[in-house]
Amino acid sequence: MAIHQPKGTSTMAKKHTRNKNSVTDLYVTETGLLTDNLDFDENNGNGKFQDLNKMEFRSDRQKEFWELISKKEITLCSGPAGTGKSYISLAKALQIFSKERRIYKKIIVVKPVVEADEKLGYLPGSVEEKLEPYVYSTKYILEKILGKARIDNLFLKGKLEVMALAYMRGINIDNAIVVCEEAQNMTPKQMKTLLTRIGENSKFIISGDHEQSDRYRKPTDSGLYFAMNKLKNIPDIGIIEFEQSDIVRNPIIGKILERFNGDIE
């Protein structure tokens, strides 16, 4: 993507006179972050973050997943830990949102509220506050991609939103990108509810790991497995599966999974 840069402007952060608090055109930070209309404060963050238009894929499957999301209205993905499913899902959602702001007005994060073998008990506060522990890992990755200040700004402006599955029935999701993670913890009924919320000009990215369900002993009972098998060969739905050989986070993860898989109920 070409960088719009008036004469006399360096490649450092540009100054804007229209709104001193936000960037309304293409924005290039001193560290090379390339963004487009994400309403970032010019003073937010000094770290080196992901260039959304120059992804460096660490496996062929990551690139395939990235491109599939572009082409399909709904993308379903499964794979083991460490393959980059969440990173690719969220980075792609941010990239599409930044490039197509006339179509997509927000990114909605959805996660099933299921605890990983440890009960938190009653959680006080609003719905958003109750969901905070469950979406912590998602926010962590978002902040890794663009920095905490920028992500907080998107939440503050309502352009990033967390939604509970329990409150989705009866609504249509229009002009939004939905990123659903940990879908192996969804029931088939919840998956049906989520998928049928898609409205006009929306894109759904749904991922999970069949082998890490906190709800089902059999991976084949989950909503993710159900959907990936029932929705094959539908033109507007993309399906992709990562393998253990696609693990890129740390090679030791593959060795751990080889020993653990099949022995834990």
Structure description:
The chain has 265 residues and is of the alpha/beta class. The chain is 29% helix and 14% strand. It is built from 8 helices and 8 strands; from the N terminus they run ββαβαβαααββαβαβα. The chain has helices at 60-71, 85-99, 127-131, 136-146, 148-156, 188-195, 223-230, 251-260; strands at residues 26-28, 34-36, 74-78, 106-110, 160-163, 176-180, 203-208, 237-241. Strand 1 (26-28) and strand 2 (34-36) form a beta hairpin. Residues 1-37, 39-47 and 115-120 have low confidence and may be disordered.
| Unreliable parts | 1-37, 39-47, 115-120
CATH level-four homologous superfamily name: P-loop containing nucleotide triphosphate hydrolases
The number of domains is 1
**Considering DSSP H and I runs of 4 or more, what fraction of the residues is helical?**
25-40%
Report the principal-axis shape.
Answer: globular
Beta strand %: 5-15%
Mean pLDDT: 77
* Largest β sheet strand count, sense and barrel closure: 6 strands, parallel
User: Whole-number radius of gyration?
Assistant: 19 Å
The rounded distance between the terminal residues' Cα atoms is 48 Å
Q: State the CATH topology.
A: Rossmann fold
Number of strands: 8
Q: Element order, helices and strands?
A: EEHEHEHHHEEHEHEH
